[in-house]
Amino acid sequence: MKKYISNPIKSLTIAGLLIICLNSYGQDKKQEISISVGGPFSFMKYNSIGEVESGNGINAGIRYSYYLNEGLSIGIGAEYQTYNSDGKFGFLTGAYTTTDAEDESFQFRYRATNLREEQKLGYVNIPVNIQFETPGTSKLYVSAGFKVGFAVSGTYETKMQNLTTSGYYPQYNVELFSPAFAGFASTDNLAAGKQDIDTEVSYSTTFETGLKQKIGDRSWIYVGVYLDYGLNNIYDKGNNKALVEYHPELPVQLQYNSVLETSYTNDVRLVSYGLKLRFALH
Predict the structure, then answer these.
(1) Strand 105-133 relative to strand 59-69: parallel, antiparallel, unpaired?
(2) How many whole angstroms from its chain centre is CA 171?
(3) What angle do CA 19, 25, 28 make, to 5 degrees?
(4) pTM (2 d.p.)
(5) CA–CA separation, 190 vs 180, rounded Å?
(6) How many CB atoms lie within 10 A of CB 35?
(7) How far apart are CA 53 and CA 88, in angstroms?
(8) What DSSP string runs through the chain?
(9) 143: closest CA among 236, 217, 262, 227?
(10) What was the pLDDT predicted at 238?
(11) Cα–Cα distance between 183 and 164 in angstroms, integer?
(12) What are the tens digits of pLDDT across the range 27-48?
C-alpha cells in the first residue's frame, strides 16, 4: 500500500500553491484564478450481488483559466476529493481448498451473515476543462472536460452479524466447526477493523453549469451544479480473492478481504455530483 500524504502536508501544499498563484496573478484580464468547494454526493459505483449505498464526500480545489476570447476559456487545476460507499450483503458464502498447520489438505468453508463494508477513498484530481460563458455582469456558464485522479488514501472497515467457519476433510468425510484456535468457529458481531485498500488511477468526464456573478472590480462568484463520472475500473485486480482468507499458523488468524477484491463485485468507478461554489479573480 502506498504511503499516504498526511493531512497537514496536504493543507500546507494547497495553501502554498494558492498564495503563489495569487501573488503572481497579473493584470491581464485574459487570466482567471479561482478556488472552489463542492459536494455532497461522492461515492464508488460498482456492480454487486448485494446492496450498495452511495455516500457523501467533498472536494476543494484551485483552477487557472486562460480566456481565448470574452466568452471562451480553457482551464487546468488541482483538487482534493473524498469518496464514501457502503456495501451491504444479507449473506455470503465461500469454500476453497487449502492446508492446515499439519500440512493436511482440507476445504475451508465460511458463511457471513449481514455483512456491511464501509469504503473511504481520497483522490487528488487534475481537471482540464473548456468553459463558455455569456456576456454581462451576471453570466450563465457551461464547463466540460476530463479529470485524471490519483489515490492518496483508501480504507475499508468490515462488520458482520455472524461469521461461521469450518473445515471439511474429504479424506475422513468430516466437517469440523471447532476448535477456534484452528480457525473453525461461529462468531457474532464481528468487527474486522479498518484496513488499507489500494486503488488505481481514475479517468473521469466532468460537467458543470450555473451562474457567474460579478461582486467586485475584478472578483466573481460562481454558483453551479456539477457531475463527475468515472470512465474506468479503479480496482481491476482480478477479483479472485476469498472474502475470508485462511492462514495455517497456529493460532489461526483469519484475513478479512474487501468485497472489492472478491467475485461479489466488479467494475468500480468514481462518481461525484452536487453543488459547487467558486470564488474567482479575473
Answers:
(1) unpaired
(2) 45
(3) 165
(4) 0.85
(5) 14
(6) 19
(7) 8
(8) -PPPPPHHHHHHHHHHHHHHHHHH--S-TTEEEEEEEEEEEEEEEEEESSEEEE-B--EEEEEEEEEEETTEEEEEEEEEEEEEEEEEEEEEEEEEEEE-TT--EEEEEEEEEEEEEEEEEEEEEEEEEEEEE-SSSEEEEEEEEEEEEEEEEEEEEEEEEEEEEEEEETTTTEEE---GGGT--EEEEEEEEEEE-----EEEEEEEEEEEEE-SSSEEEEEEEEEEEE-S-S--S-S---SEE---SSSP--EE--GGGSTTEEEEEEEEEEEEEEEEE-
(9) 227
(10) 75
(11) 10
(12) 456 899 999 999 999 999 999 9
Prior bond to 248 cis, omega within 30?
no
Strand 51-54 relative to strand 72-99, pairing: antiparallel
Assess contact for 140 and 134: CB atoms under 8 A.
yes
Task: Evaluate whether 193 touches 156 at the Cβ level (below 8 Å).
Answer: no
In angstroms, rounded to a whole number, what is the distance separating the alpha carbons of residues 268 and 271?
Answer: 10
pLDDT digits (tens, 9 = 90+) for 120-149: 999 999 999 999 999 999 999 999 999 999
Cell match 473548456: residue? Answer: 130
C-alpha cell at 147: 479529470
Amino acid code (one letter) for 259: V
